[in-house]
């Protein structure tokens, strides 16, 4: 797991770098916020450890910028501080800090916080994978929903419960905003209605003629 | 961390950076740039804490607090006191460094 450490104090930075290697993390370091931001964008570390007060760009400003950049990928951010005042901690958290670590660096505390960060990042990763899986499944369902089984002869539709219904009935059930106004198309008029009309009038004519000759 | 070579490396960095910071504090003080004095003192405090130089860290913290919280100008005497304490720390660090490489 990649960890970026940013601090303008080289003693702190060298100590953190050493501890990160000892704890099995891949470390990247920067001596100010501007370089830290560049390295962050280049390496996309999963965990960031940063000092509060630094020249060029202070820790909270760098954190805010990183949070503004971040889209789907989360970074667990630990802020090093020798400022333990409540207001400072609140403003750090509002900037996007997840955890604080007091100076001087205590190796056990650093290891514990890194473990929390690692756990959060692993959860985040598995959550991301699950969301991707669900999105894929949703797309698949949408494709399946696009198929509508219809009888080739009578044009009845089969629903999810395996029941067949007339197309008007099916659409009325599944598309609440649609209502049918029945009519007859010219083709059906020619093939269906006209022969019926002709048969009807022929029958009437025959009846009249029979009545007249009686 | 129980590694003499690493301890020696930290001492070298602390001495080099510490001297640089002390020079910057003096320059900022001479120009009456109090916010710079406070920021450099804050930075030196972190380094001092890391090597266990508590007295030096406390002096740095008091200067940082005076500037940041109270907006107070720092008297020349406090800068001299800080320089004196840094010299003491540097002397001790040189002795430890010497013992490590002996």
What does this structure look like?
The complex is a heterodimer of chains A (214) and B (102). Chain A is an alpha/beta fold and 214 residues long. Chain A has three domains: 2-135, Rossmann fold; 149-182, no CATH class; 189-214. Chain A is built from seven helices and seven strands. Chain A has helices at residues 10-22, 33-43, 59-69, 86-95, 107-145, 167-174, 186-213, and strands at residues 2-6, 26-30, 47-51, 76-81, 99-102, 157-158, 164-165. A five-stranded parallel beta sheet of chain A has the order 2-1-3-4-5, with helices on both faces. A two-stranded antiparallel ribbon of chain A has the order 6-7. In chain A, helix 2 packs parallel to helix 3 (59-69). The longest helix of chain A has 39 residues, at 107-145. Chain A starts with a strand and ends with a helix. Chain B is mostly helical and 102 residues long. Chain B is elongated. The model of chain B has no long low-confidence stretch (mean pLDDT 90). Chain B starts with a helix and ends with a helix. In chain B, helix 3 runs antiparallel to helix 4 (76-101). Chain B contains four helices and no strands. Chain B has a single domain (4-101), classed as HPT domain (Four Helix Bundle (Hemerythrin (Met), subunit A), Up-down Bundle), CATH 1.20.120.160. Classes of the chains: A alpha/beta (214), B mainly alpha (102). The A-B interface holds A 7-12, 14-15, 18-19, 22, 51, 53, 55, 80, 82, 103-105, 107 and B 1, 6, 9-10, 13-14, 17, 39, 42-43, 45-47, 49-52, 61.
């Amino acid at each position: 797991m990649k960890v970026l450490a940013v601090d303008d104090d080289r003693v702190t930075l060298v100590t953190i770098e050493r501890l990160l290697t000892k704890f099995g993390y891949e470390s990247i370091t920067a001596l100010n916020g501007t370089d830290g931001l560049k390295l962050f964008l280049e390496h996309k570390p999963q965990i960031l450890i940063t000092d509060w007060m630094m020249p060029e760009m202070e820790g909270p400003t760098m954190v805010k910028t990183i949070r503004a950049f971040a889209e789907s990928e989360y970074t667990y951010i630990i802020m090093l501080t020798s400022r333990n005042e409540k207001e400072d901690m609140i403003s750090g958290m509002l900037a996007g800090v997840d955890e604080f670590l007091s100076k001087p660096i205590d190796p056990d505390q650093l290891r514990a916080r890194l473990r929390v960060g690692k756990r959060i990042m692993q959860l985040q990763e598995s959550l991301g994978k699950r969301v991707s899986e669900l999105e894929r499944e949703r797309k698949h369902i949408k494709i399946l929903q696009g198929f509508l089984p219809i009888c080739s002869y009578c044009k009845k539709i089969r629903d999810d419960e395996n029941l067949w219904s007339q197309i008007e009935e099916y659409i009325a059930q599944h598309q609440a905003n649609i209502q049918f106004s029945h009519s007859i198309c010219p083709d059906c008029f020619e093939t269906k209605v006209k022969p019926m009309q002709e048969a009807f009038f022929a029958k009437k004519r025959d009846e009249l003629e029979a009545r007249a000759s009686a | 961390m129980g590694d003499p070579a690493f301890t020696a490396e930290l001492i070298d960095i602390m001495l080099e950076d510490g001297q640089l910071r002390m020079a910057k504090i003096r320059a900022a003080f001479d120009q009456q740039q109090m916010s710079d004095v406070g920021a450099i003192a804050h930075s030196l405090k972190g380094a001092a804490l890391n090597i266990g130089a508590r007295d030096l860290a406390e002096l740095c913290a008091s200067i940082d607090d005076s500037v940041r919280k109270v907006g107070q100008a720092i008297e020349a005497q406090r800068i001299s006191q800080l320089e004196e304490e840094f010299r003491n720390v540097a002397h001790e660090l040189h002795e430890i460094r010497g013992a490590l490489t002996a």
